[in-house]
UniProtKB/TrEMBL annotation:
Subcellular location: Cell membrane; Nucleus outer membrane
Protein name: Inositol 1,4,5-trisphosphate receptor-interacting protein
Residues annotated as signal peptide: 1-24
Assigned GO CC terms: nuclear outer membrane; plasma membrane
Domain named Mab-21-like HhH/H2TH-like: residues: 405-478
Coiled-coil segments on the chain, per record: 38-82
Function: Enhances Ca(2+)-mediated inhibition of inositol 1,4,5-triphosphate receptor (ITPR) Ca(2+) release.
PANTHER family named among the record's database cross-references: CELL FATE DETERMINING PROTEIN MAB21-RELATED, INOSITOL 1,4,5-TRISPHOSPHATE RECEPTOR-INTERACTING PROTEIN
Presence of the UniProt keyword S-adenosyl-L-methionine in the record: no
Keyword Transmembrane: yes
InterPro entries according to UniProt: ITPRIP-like, Mab-21_HhH/H2TH-like, MAB21L/cGLR
Gene3D superfamilies xrefs: 1.10.1410.40, 3.30.460.90
Length: 548
């Protein structure tokens, strides 16, 4: 009985507990009203709409991004194609440029100042010679014999006197200089027309160059325009000279270019071997705050040294010595008590490496020349090699060859014309350059003495051609046909040819004046020569013509 009652009670209790209306389960759902169900459906619909809009926006952004990437890829692809095409055009242009440059060099080498046998090539200015009564060889020979040949003895005596005095003066200069601090002066050398025997116009002036070197332990290191570094066109033919220690590397030590600090020491340079301060570098005639040799400082030092040297030996001579020209620092003049005087130029130079090319501190200039870029730029002179070349070629020419006679006559006539019409941009050096080119290009037999008239006309025609083209190349620079016997530095032979008439391109007034003077000289040549020639009887002239 008790057990039955317990079972019934347990059943009733279980039914009550599991009844959904009394104790609903946690996951159980209570029937909702229709309005609530509709409201929830609307909310769900709104949520889905917003989600759809968000997804559409993301898809649109992704598509825009993909489109932008595709456009960028197309731009890059087009740029790469254009770059490839541009690189191809650049490469093609470079190839064409190199071919043109090689052709130009071969052309210049093949027709170096082409003076070949074609008369049409020589007679560029045929108009200038039309109607010109050119003096015949009889008048030219008489003119040379009576007017020019007699000056040869005077030149020889003057050279001997000037050289002896210059040697004595330089020996005194060495004695007054401080061997430990001043520049070391070497023996002088004669260059130019007086030592090549073609000077004709008075007063005769000897040109002497004096090489000098720095005191120990210093040395000169030079840099020229054709050594590989880029030089502007107006600095072609120039170079710079750096004063360095003899034990210093050509590139210099890094301690000179960087600040090592107070607690660091260069192992290559001790305190006793440091670079001289700025003031002492100026004592070495360098430009202020640099190591580059200053031409103005050199000339000041040289003038002071020459003055001291003359004061030491002046008692030995019965004449006075003075500087004659302000614009030519090396111009000296000897004045005798009789009133006569002798002028000569004594110019300091620096040797280029182990050659006979020299950096010259002052170069006589004409109206054609431009000023030096700066006082640290030095002009190079090849005067020693020019003299040697003339001597070398003269050994292969016929006896009494007329090459020097042509240069003397042309120089004389041009000088007389300039005295009438004013200075010209054409100089004696230009005329000598013309002769050097013709000596190299023409056969030896063309310079026989009986061909004086033809050779003089060839020089005039060649000069006329150069004036017409505004091109007269320096004989040595860029000339790969220089005789090996001269020992000429190869670096200058491989350089670009240097146009001596380049200033004519920039100075049109000077060019026009030069051309007018040249044409006037051609028209007046016979008159100028006859004026300074002893009269030749007509019968004698005709006889000479018949013999020829």
């Amino acid at each position: 009985m008790p057990v039955g009652i317990f079972r019934v009670s347990l059943l009733v209790l279980t039914a009550i507990v599991n009844h959904p209306l009394i104790f609903p389960k946690e996951n159980g759902t209570v029937p909702e009203e229709p309005q609530d169900i509709i409201q929830k459906m609307k909310e769900r619909e709104e949520t889905l709409r917003l989600e759809r809009l968000r997804l559409e926006q993301e898809i649109a952004e992704w598509e825009a991004t993909q489109e932008a990437l595709e456009k960028a890829a197309k731009v890059v692809e087009q740029h790469e194609e254009e770059k490839v095409r541009w690189d191809m055009w650049t490469a093609l242009s470079m190839v064409i440029f190199l071919l043109i440059e090689l052709w130009r060099q071969d052309f210049q080498e093949g027709i170096w100042q082409d003076t070949g046998g074609e008369e049409d090539d020589m007679a560029v200015l045929g108009k200038a010679f039309k109607g010109v009564a050119f003096p015949d060889k009889a008048i030219l020979a008489s003119f040379y014999e009576k007017r020019i040949l007699g000056t040869t003895g005077d030149m020889a005596r003057m050279r001997e006197m000037v050289e002896g005095f210059a040697d004595d003066l330089l020996e005194a200069l060495r004695s007054v200089c401080n061997r430990d601090a001043d520049m070391e002066v070497e023996d002088c050398m004669g260059v130019g027309s007086m030592y090549e025997n073609w000077r004709v116009r008075k007063p005769f002036v000897c040109d002497l160059i004096v090489p000098f070197a720095p005191p120990e332990p210093y040395c000169f290191r030079s840099q020229i325009w054709c050594s590989g570094d880029s030089f502007p066109p107006d600095e072609q033919g120039y170079g710079t000279i750096k004063v360095c220690r003899a034990d210093e590397a050509a590139t210099g030590c890094i301690c000179d270019k960087t600040k090592l600090g107070e607690d660091m020491l260069c192992l290559l340079h001790s305190q006793a071997n440091t670079t001289r301060p700025s003031s002492e570098m100026e004592d070495l005639l360098c430009f202020k705050n640099t190591q580059y040799l200053d031409a103005d400082q050199v000339m000041k030092w040289f003038q002071i040294a020459v003055t001291k040297a003359w004061n030491r030996i002046s008692h030995k001579y019965e004449f006075d010595l003075s500087f004659s020209l302000l614009d030519s620092p090396g111009a000296l003049k000897i004045k005798f008590r009789s009133g006569k005087s002798i002028a000569f130029n004594l110019t300091p130079v620096v040797q280029y490496e182990n050659s006979d090319v020299y950096f010259i501190s002052h170069f006589p200039r004409s109206s054609l020349a431009v000023d030096l870029p700066s006082s640290t730029h030095w002009f190079l002179t090849f005067a020693v090699y020019e003299r040697r070349f003339i001597q070398l070629v003269s050994k292969t020419l016929p006896a009494n060859a007329c090459h020097v006679s042509c240069l003397q006559i042309l120089s004389f006539v041009h000088g007389k014309q300039c005295s009438l019409t004013g200075p010209s941009g054409l100089t004696n050096y230009h005329m000598k350059t013309v002769l050097l080119h013709l000596l190299q290009a023409r056969p030896s037999e063309d310079w026989a003495p009986e061909k004086l008239e033809a050779c003089l006309q060839d020089m005039l025609k060649f000069l006329e051609k150069c004036l017409h083209e505004k091109k007269l190349y320096h004989f040595f620079i860029g000339n790969r046909k220089v005789p090996a016997e001269l020992g000429f530095p190869i670096i200058f032979q491989r350089a670009e040819p240097l146009n001596l008439f380049r200033p004519f391109v920039l100075q049109r007034d000077v060019y026009r004046k030069t051309v007018d003077t040249f044409h006037e000289m051609l028209r007046n040549m016979t008159t100028l020569i006859n004026e300074y020639t002893v009269h030749i009887p007509l019968a004698q002239t005709n006889g000479i013509h018949k013999e020829s």
